[in-house]
Write a structure and sequence with these properties.
Two copies of one chain form a homodimer. Chain A contains 17 helices and 19 strands. With about 475 residues, chain A is an alpha+beta fold. In chain A, the strands form five sheets. The first copy, chain A, has a six-stranded antiparallel beta sheet, with helices on both faces. Chain A has a five-stranded antiparallel beta sheet with strand order 5-6-10-8-9. Chain A has a four-stranded mixed beta sheet with strand order 1-2-4-3, with helices on both faces. In chain A, β5 and β6 form a beta hairpin. At the A-B interface, β9, α8, β11, α9 and α11 of A face β9, α8, β11, α9 and α11 of B. Chains A, B: GO terms for molecular function: D-lactate dehydrogenase (cytochrome) activity; D-lactate dehydrogenase (NAD+) activity; FAD binding.
């Protein structure tokens, strides 16, 4: 079982840092048990490893102060956004200080002419989109959960819109970062593109707090499209649905979303959201553009779906119908968990070249059936990324061991197909051995970079970088 | 004058490495004067610094062998593609071995279902697009020159299509790299997206050969659009043209290209390509999509152009007319050089937030006029990136000094506007001081990464990283 191993604690350093930080931060410094437990706890299935204290900084200067104290005493620093990580990112295996960004939640600037904005890391994506709406702008990345933008940047998040708008990697223009030495740096200018040296923005995005703490984010924005339409269509098999997806992408239809739900997910969503979708593999789509263009896209797609045996094709530009459908999709995680209320969902996150998607999803489903698991499957299939969610009784060691074996088997399968063990959740604690399987010698370069940037390993230790 | 300073040579190491490599590579190992001079020579205005030998490897294994020998003897290794760099990237200020990738020019795989391909670094973009045409696919990044894809990745190149398709940063999925230790690593899988650890692909793209040699590139491809249209329109002033560009982007019209030529560039292009474009600031555009969509886009844009005083708006879907117009645009560099045949063009490359573009271009033009320079201006204005090309008599020290001062002034201006000193050409030798002005303390992190990955500084020394 790849579990969250405890790491050696620097007790002397921790005691010293706690003393200094308590002095410096007063009320913003918290050590109560329940608050510490909350900050180790996420939606992950990994065990909770709590920090020694939680601090709520108000600005970059305070973050830098915290990191400087921790650097002096060689104490771990763990960034925290909304706690929606699925891979143990906020666990504190060696103790240390959790830096909760909740109170750094200001939208600092919106440059509507340049289609960008500058936000603090605690701003959530819903908060940003509500703020932008009046200006006719939106930020497209949508991982489902109302995550913080700092956390989304740190884990290179994506979600349902990535097929059209890319991931956080493609939508962060620049970052302000507090380095492991407590210095404040800016990784790039606000220019739309640049060839100015190493892409530190890209290096920080997805570094999971192991190279520094993100204190400000410059994001690309999009104009709210003139029109949106959404569509749904059912298929006899996952294979047929995937074929339709491939053809849609190859034809260059600029779908904004193209999501797969397997039969079990559809059943879960119907029950949870009180819908009556046909109980068969389902594709949900969204199209963005001019009124003509979204109609044309929906109809082109309808034709492709029919070719691959799609049935019950419907499309609409009604905002109400659209929102209902996408709310149901976003609730799929909770709808799935409700299929076995006392169990824990273990979300897998493989992403494969789209030509191998049907084969990979089918193999996963067969194996889950053979194991007797209740395990709905949803997928951001335009990117080749899908999640299975085996619902596991964590008090049953045999079941847990079988689930763990399944996760490993699926990661290996995806890697063997030229894919990755994580499309969007990150490596965190649990996937470190698979990172090595996936990238081999390249991980040595990651280790070298980590050691150079954070020689005392104080930034989020036990994440990404494999144990020796 | 920021010139190409010579760096100390490791004579003993170079002699030893030359002996071993000559033995190992036979005919592929060349030390003739003219071939060495050719390999230091590029379109740059910086002085030529020639390598001690040029090797033409056939495969990754041979590249790894070269690097291992150079690592053993601490001898510089400089990658070479087609020599179209404008910033002295292939100069050898401390001597060493130039690795010419010309013979590693195979297209290794095209995965049409996944819209990606795998190529060797010596494949040029035109070669790739000719190869892909029958499959209905294309690779969109187009820097004008028929550059090698390895060189384009190494410098984070972009060009006319970036406004729609992004830069090399957005279009490289994975790389095979020979590290400074001579190990072969793969930076990512073929999955469309991934959160698997640090983004080494992104780190290598734009690292200008200072962290390793790229030996294989996995690229995203696009389906050839069903239809393309191109358009042109003239304006009274650069400001009006820029306003029209801003409005076009804000309205979400998915332009594939939107290029500005100032009056002098139009005159140069008319003379060079035998055209009769109106002698006024000009926007050239291209639209990609369905037949309906490209017509709609062209007409929407026409309306916007009119609002800002655009005249002579014309659009066409004729491939012949389109190609003629874009060939003229691509020849603008040579057309400009022809305005003063014995002079050298010093291309600037600033990129600013689009809201500051008109101000920046106007200021540059005024200053160039005041200096009495012949200096056409073209711009990838959808991204806020533009090039001025002062044509300088390199034998006139006073003129050279004035040009150098202008370059510095313009870089400083762009940086003060929240922009960058290089949108797409890279830092190379000449822009190192501006990198520090632009990113300050972030450059320390670049230095730390460089030292960790290449502790002996053998990979393309004297580029990107500032002198102590």
């Amino acid at each position: 079982m790849v579990q969250a191993t405890d790491l050696p604690r620097n007790e002397i350093g921790i005691t010293a840092a706690l003393g200094v930080l308590k002095q410096q931060f007063g009320e913003k410094f918290q050590t109560g048990n329940s608050i510490r437990e909350q900050h180790g706890h996420t939606t992950t299935w990994l065990k909770n490893q709590i920090p020694d204290a939680v601090i709520f900084p108000q600005n970059t200067g305070e973050v830098a102060e915290i990191v400087k104290v921790c650097a002096t005493h060689k104490v771990p620093v763990i960034g925290y956004g909304t706690g929606t990580s699925l891979e143990g990112h906020v666990n504190a295996p060696a103790g240390g200080i959790c830096v909760d960004m909740t109170e750094m939640n200001e939208i600092l600037a919106v440059h509507s002419e340049d289609l960008d904005c500058v936000v603090q890391p605690g701003v959530t994506r819903e908060q940003l989109n509500v703020y932008l709406r009046d200006q006719g702008l939106f930020f497209p990345i949508d991982p489902g959960a109302n995550a913080s933008l700092g956390g989304m940047a740190a884990t290179r998040a994506s979600g349902t819109n990535a097929v059209r708008y890319g991931t956080m990697k493609d939508n962060v223009l620049a970052l302000e970062v507090v380095t492991p030495q407590g210095e404040v740096i800016r990784t790039a200018s606000r220019a739309k593109k640049s060839s100015a040296g190493y892409d530190l923005t890209g290096l920080m995005v997805g570094s999971e707090g192991t190279l520094g703490l993100i204190t400000e984010i410059t994001l690309k924005l999009q104009g709210i499209p003139e029109a949106m339409s959404s569509a749904r269509v059912s298929f006899d098999s996952i294979g047929a649905a995937c074929e339709a997806v491939m053809m849609t992408i190859q034809c260059g239809i600029p779908v904004a979303r193209i999501e797969l739900l397997d039969t079990l997910s559809v059943q879960a969503v119907n029950a949870y959201s009180n819908l009556t979708l046909p109980e068969a593999p389902l594709l949900l789509l969204e199209f963005h553009g001019s009124e003509n263009s979204v109609a044309e896209q929906a109809e082109l797609f309808g034709g492709i779906a029919e070719e691959f045996g799609g049935t019950g094709f419907e499309w609409t530009t009604s905002a109400e119908d659209r929102n209902k459908l996408w709310q149901a999709r976003h609730d799929a995680y909770w709808a799935s968990c409700a299929l076995r209320p006392d169990a824990k969902g273990i979300s897998t996150d493989v992403c494969v070249p789209i030509s191998r998607l049907a084969e990979c999803v089918n193999a996963a489903q067969e194996r889950l059936d053979a194991l007797g698991f209740i395990a709905p499957i949803v997928g951001h299939v335009g990117d080749g990324n899908f999640h299975t969610l085996p619902l596991i009784d964590m008090d049953n060691p045999e079941e847990v061991a079988k689930a763990d074996e399944f996760v490993g088997w699926l990661n290996d399968l995806a890697i063997s197909m030229g894919g990755t063990c994580t499309g969007e959740h990150g490596i965190g604690q649990g996937k470190r051995p698979y990172l090595v399987k996936e990238l081999g010698g390249a991980v040595d370069m990651m280790v070298a970079i980590k050691s150079a940037v954070d020689p005392d390993n104080i930034m989020n230790p036990g994440k990404i970088i494999p144990e020796d």
